[in-house]
């Protein structure tokens, strides 16, 4: 099958390349419909990764968050037109201990392996998962990010001590918002506190028990456990505040990506017996759990619909460039393209 792949070839430059794809009986052919932009894609689009990384990974189709319609299933298990979430991580082995998203042999789309900006995406059968027909399509585009939140909170549940009194989330953007909606489902008895930089973003977290601007946190405030969802240079300040405000022996899950190493006050980490645990990406089990939560909880779906920020139909390369540029200046929410190439 000949496929048109929309690859980033250099910062802010895309090219359509024609690729011959083999479709085996174990594959599903999907036409992408709604695609959502992640910070990781923007770091490639703007050329802000190190030059050596860009040389190694480009040309490459961006985007690892999206839903599409099944076009062809050689085994007939999925009907044509079925809406599916596409799982960007593609493992080639299993391990009894290391999860699929941490195996060095796994390929992750839009990080060295073509993402979803293609006419058709050929995925292994276990890399698609049906999305209920009544889900909002634009919200469904970022189910991958919901699965990342599920993965992070699963790691928190596996690691933390018995104190569930208060969970603090640092970061008032997309990942913070998604993780906050999931805390309400996965830790319903906990008090949820959000720590952010913008009052107008914190106002969206109306379901949280408390919100704080990070320059106005009461000195004696303590959280039982914490999740860092900031990234960039903001991570350093967020981790420092988490160390200051978490109870002894608490766990902090770190999810924000920083290009440069950030400083951490290890003396306090040791003195208070804290656990800092990083989580990255997600696997099929996290997608399944995310879809289960969304299916059972209409209120979570409604909250996540409030995170749909910029939406536009894209049909040409200029539309794609304009869309990515638009996302860079978009203040609140996820940017979702209706993929109409
Ligand atoms: N681990 C993983 O698998 C994944 C990681 N990520 C990463 O998560 C990070 C966040 O992504 P996303 O939510 O989309 O980004 P956003 O820009 O939407 O959100 C980050 C928010 O955190 C705020 N912030 C910055 N510093 C602090 C601080 N010290 N304390 C509290 N809030 C702060 C930012 O404010 P301001 O804009 O003023 O700086 C911004 O509002 C990125 O680094 C992204 O790459 C994303 C997906 C998956
Ligand atoms: O966004 C993510 C998962 O949803 C990850 O942060 C992203 O995959 C990291 O990739 P890269 O190393 O290419 O920045
Ligand atoms: Zn991502």
TrEMBL record:
EC class of the enzyme, as a word: oxidoreductase
Alphabetic keyword roster: Cell wall biogenesis/degradation, Metal-binding, NADP, Oxidoreductase, Teichoic acid biosynthesis, Zinc
GO biological process, one term: cell wall organization
Pathway: Cell wall biogenesis; poly(ribitol phosphate) teichoic acid biosynthesis
Listed name of the protein: Ribulose-5-phosphate reductase
Catalytic function, reaction form: D-ribitol 5-phosphate + NADP(+) = D-ribulose 5-phosphate + NADPH + H(+)
Coiled coil spans: none
One matching Pfam family: ADH_N
Residue intervals of the Alcohol dehydrogenase-like N-terminal domain: 25-132
Family stated for the protein in its record: Belongs to the zinc-containing alcohol dehydrogenase family.
Annotated function: Catalyzes the NADPH dependent reduction of D-ribulose 5-phosphate to D-ribitol 5-phosphate.
Biological classification of the source: Bacteria, Bacillati, Bacillota, Bacilli, Lactobacillales
